[in-house]
Amino acid sequence: MKTLDIRVTQADDRATVVINGELDEAATEPLKDIDLDHLSRSGCQDLAIDLGGVEFIDSSGIGALVGLRNRAAREGLSIRIDQAPLHVRRTLTVAGLDGLLGLT
Fold first, then answer.
1. How many domains does the chain have?
2. What is the CA angle 61-63-83, rounded to 5?
3. pLDDT for the residue 3
4. Is residue 87 part of a domain?
5. Which terminus of the chain is less hemmed in, N or C, by CB atoms within 10 Å?
């Protein structure tokens, strides 16, 4: 099992969440802990989720991403998925979430 690593950076009006490791049940709480209210109050308008280092994703990980998207929308933040590996892209597309999550 690979250790989950989540980093959040902000530059001007854009924040990036970089996720490395396995996006599964263990990712649920760390993704909930991202302070979107703080990002919004500090001028952030766009939230990019970099999944380039995600080695595995399951239904819990998908649910955590949807939850992050919903919280971001409540804060007035637009969201998009960047750098998703092919296996993650396929999973999100088959689940019908590519549009909702802004998969690029």
1. 1
2. 55
3. 80
4. yes
5. N
- Band (pLDDT 50/70/90 cuts) for residue 104 is confident
**Which two tokens mark 18?**
């970089």
What CATH number does residue 35 fall under? 3.30.750.24
What residue numbers bound the domain in which 40 lies? Answer: 5-94
Domain assignment of residue 42, yes or no: yes
Q: 26 in a domain, yes or no?
A: yes
Laid out side by side, the sheet with 46-57 consists of: 5-11, 14-23, 46-57, 78-82
Q: In angstroms, what CA-CA distances link 73 with 25, 37, 53, 101, 102?
A: 22, 11, 24, 11, 12
Residue 74, both tokens: 């409540």
